[in-house]
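Look at one record.

>
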Amino acid sequence: MDPIHGSVGQLLEHIQDKMKSKGLGDTIAKFAETTGIKKIVKNITSDCGCDKRQEWLNKKIPYKN
């Protein structure tokens, strides 16, 4: 395999790794973004505590990746 395809493959693997949910918080955050809930909340308030809640849920209910 030539170096370019190897680099692309490594980049794709890295992106997929970063996209994996670490826990329930990540899954809920992805759902909120996909459905548009996050955008609505951001229009209502500047800080809803979503990031802290996401971290807390990831720690309390982690996934075995």
Summary: The first helix runs from residue 3 to 19. The mean pLDDT is 85. Residues 23 and 63 are 5 Å apart (CA to CA).
